[in-house]
Amino acid sequence: MRWRPLLAFLVFCAPVVAQASDTPKGIAEGFYHAVISLNEGGIPDSAGRARLEPFISPSLAHALASANAAELAYAHNARHAVPPLLEGNIFVSLFDGVSTASVGQCVRRKAHAACPAALSYLSPTGKRYHWQDKVLLTRTADGWRVDNVVYGGGVPYANQGTLKSNLAFALANARGG
Description:
By secondary structure, this protein is of the alpha+beta class. It has five helices and five strands; from the N terminus they run ααααβββββα.
């Protein structure tokens, strides 16, 4: 009997909590948390993509899967005598990756949103790098999802352009283009 008020409270609040995590900022934060936990470079394999899947759009998931398949075929055809098509952390500007991420105020325009992300990396030598990237989200049937990352650069060996443009570059190079 005394559990009923608690149960009613949980049933009432659960949709609010779920809804809060489906904001552009909540999804972007989840995305960066997953990226930090991956702690690997290059195009992620299926296990890595599975960890990102709750946060990425079907379009980005397809681009990652296509680039991974192309890279595997490229390496196989070259008898693994070639480096990966994309090396380092492909989800942030800095090749070495990211240690912390703080997502700022997102700007929404209809079914799209853009969120700045203040990122940093602490190197093994103790040097800290700071930069800002922008994560682009789209509203899908499953809610807000990350669709692309615009690299902000300003750090050594920075990725240039966007995540999707780098994946397209890798796909084209795997095909000999």
